[in-house]
């Protein structure tokens, strides 16, 4: 960790007070982790059935054929029931109306090759329902309101439709950020069928806005390509599972800390948020009755900071058929599935092989990952499947031997090799974290990653922190090909703290340690890869359509460009995010 001074504490506290009056930053009642744990423990597990999120079609029909469509989806404050025995909770939620808004939001179902336009509307109140910290780089409107902007995570779309962190807007577009350009976003849906998700991306507020509920799933389908695979299909047997941990006050409201880990520097910010309860599709520890047949689950980890290491208590395997927005070339069977923040996996489970009438989906990932505390009796449980008694099902679905192929990795074709370095900085007096940077730079510093559209690059991502970081690039698709341990790590870190230059610090002499293999079920084109601490991870990045090898069907070099960042939301907000500017 890199020490920094905290000499501006008084000025920062004045800024907190001023911004709090303008935008609703109000300290909540003091509460201990023990109290939050007691609230969560009071909720009986497996009493609420897993919700099926409402579906919104991202296409129209014209003369019986799919045609482009235009949707209007708003963001609203409303009440949501997270559990039978918990009072209704104030949330921010997506929906086509206030009445239909849900947590998570409706699942948008699009078709490959059929464009969709979405007008995103902000109907949120003047004050936030959760505390936030104006001392991290944050969108702060002059006249109040909750800034939001929507990013389609995993989407391949023009820069003006990407949901840039500074393209935020408040209710009625009353105030707009410096890179705001249009109320209506264009999604070409030219990419491979797969699972994506949409969520808020406002500067400095993603952790608060997502915790409040601004997230939802987005599925791209291509029946002509996918039907021959024979995977489980239909709403009953092809389900999206959105995982998100939350802590609650006894009155049902969502807990978010009001005091920071280093309050002299950041009065409210903490490096990670971990909730005591695990919600799936907006219910705490739900259950799902299942038949003795194959089911397809599209698992999205929408937590702020928690990783999940998932397994089924009765030993059934997950047949992984896809990760993030891409299929695997062939299925991979695993009994444990590590899902990073913002990562998605597409799996099939065969409940006809279940030796038990029930199967719990459990979690064993330490938090923070990988060297934190083991999950307890609450965060170690996710949901339960109740398997019906043995019956004969005419289940014609299957797990095929082969799936879909894309362009080859072709590391040797890279036009450029870059070093991307992850730092965490700490206060000299307390030793507590103050902020995190990539390559020692801020979002507002000029772009240094300027790839040419249509090319391949190799990014050597060096993690000098203690955490595993889920690296997310907007627009691009990429995959890790290997991870090499760093020997003489402390010596290398000291050099990097002085010079911030991997070449001058002889990275080649340090990246010679143990090699960690990339799991088979992660060897496809992804939009999140795990970057292990103390390792240099080699990532091949494609700035092109991996389905065809061709360049993008739009001008990817336009303003305001894209970004890349750590997807632990508390890290991204402070300030592990950098610009990504494509050039011709």
Automatic annotation (TrEMBL):
Its cofactor is Cu cation. GO terms for biological process: cellular response to phosphate starvation. Residues 1-24 form the signal peptide. It is found in: Endoplasmic reticulum membrane. It is a peripheral membrane protein. Keywords: Copper, Endoplasmic reticulum, Glycoprotein, Membrane, Metal-binding, Oxidoreductase, Signal. GO terms for molecular function: copper ion binding; oxidoreductase activity. It holds the Pfam family Cu-oxidase_3. The keyword Methyltransferase does not apply. Residues 147-223, 284-353, 439-579 form the Plastocyanin-like domain. SUPFAM superfamilies: Cupredoxins. One of its GO terms (cellular component) is endoplasmic reticulum membrane. Multicopper oxidase that may play a role in the maintenance of inorganic phosphate homeostasis. Belongs to the multicopper oxidase family. This is Multicopper oxidase LPR1-like. It comes from Panicum miliaceum (Proso millet).
């Amino acid at each position: 960790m890199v020490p920094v001074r905290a000499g501006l504490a008084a000025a920062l506290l004045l800024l907190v007070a001023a911004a709090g009056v303008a935008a609703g930053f109000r300290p909540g009642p003091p509460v201990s982790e023990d109290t939050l744990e007691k609230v969560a423990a009071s909720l009986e597990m497996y009493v609420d059935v897993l919700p099926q999120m409402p579906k919104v079609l991202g296409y129209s029909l014209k003369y019986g054929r799919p045609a482009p469509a235009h949707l209007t989806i708003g963001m609203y404050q409303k009440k949501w029931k997270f559990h039978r025995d918990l009072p209704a909770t104030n949330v921010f939620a997506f929906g086509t109306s206030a009445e239909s808004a849900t947590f998570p939001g409706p699942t948008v179902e699009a078709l490959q090759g059929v464009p969709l336009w979405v007008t995103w509307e902000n109907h949120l109140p003047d004050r936030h329902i959760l505390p936030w910290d104006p001392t991290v780089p944050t969108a702060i409107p002059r006249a109040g309101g909750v800034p939001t902007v929507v990013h389609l995570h995993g989407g391949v779309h023009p820069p003006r439709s990407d949901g840039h962190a500074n393209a935020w807007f408040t209710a009625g577009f009353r105030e707009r950020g410096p890179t705001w350009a249009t109320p209506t976003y264009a999604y070409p849906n030219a990419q491979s069928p797969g699972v994506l998700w949409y969520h808020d991306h406002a500067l400095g507020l993603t952790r608060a806005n997502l915790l409040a509920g601004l997230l939802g799933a987005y599925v791209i389908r291509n029946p002509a390509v996918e039907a021959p695979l024979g995977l489980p299909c239909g709403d009953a047997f092809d389900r999206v599972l959105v995982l998100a941990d939350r802590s609650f006050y006894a009155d049902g409201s969502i807990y978010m800390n009001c005091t920071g880990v280093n309050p002299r520097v950041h009065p409210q910010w903490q490096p990670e948020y971990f909730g005591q309860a695990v919600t799936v599709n907006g219910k705490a520890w739900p259950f799902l009755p299942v038949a003795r047949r194959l089911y397809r689950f599209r698992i999205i980890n929408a937590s702020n900071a928690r990783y999940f290491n998932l397994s089924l208590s009765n030993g059934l395997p997950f047949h992984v058929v896809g990760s993030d927005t891409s299929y695997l070339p062939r299925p991979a069977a695993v009994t444990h599935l590590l899902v990073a923040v913002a990562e998605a996996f597409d799996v099939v489970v065969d409940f006809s092989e279940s030796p038990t009438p029930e199967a719990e989906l459990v979690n064993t990932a330490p938090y923070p990952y990988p060297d934190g505390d083991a999950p307890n009796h609450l965060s170690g449980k996710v949901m339960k499947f109740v398997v019906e008694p043995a019956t004969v099902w005419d289940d014609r679905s299957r797990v095929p031997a082969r799936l879909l192929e894309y362009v080859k990795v072709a590391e040797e074709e890279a036009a450029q090799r870059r070093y991307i370095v992850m730092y965490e900085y700490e206060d000299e007096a307390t030793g507590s974290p103050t902020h995190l940077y990539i390559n020692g730079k801020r979002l507002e510093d000029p772009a240094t990653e300027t790839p040419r559209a249509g090319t391949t690059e190799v990014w050597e991502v060096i993690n000098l922190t203690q955490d595993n970081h889920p690296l997310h690039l907007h627009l691009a698709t990429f995959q890790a090909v290997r991870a090499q341990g760093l020997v003489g790590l402390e010596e290398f870190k000291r050099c990097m703290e002085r010079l911030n230059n991997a070449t001058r610090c002889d990275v080649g002499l340090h990246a010679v340690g143990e090699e960690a293999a990339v799991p088979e079920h992660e060897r496809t084109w992804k939009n999140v890869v795990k970057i292990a601490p103390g390792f240099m991870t080699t990532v091949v990045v494609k700035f092109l359509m991996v389905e065809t090898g061709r360049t993008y069907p739009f001008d990817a070099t336009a303003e305001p460009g894209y970004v890349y960042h750590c997807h632990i939301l508390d890290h991204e907000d402070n300030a592990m995010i950098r610009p990504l500017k494509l050039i011709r």
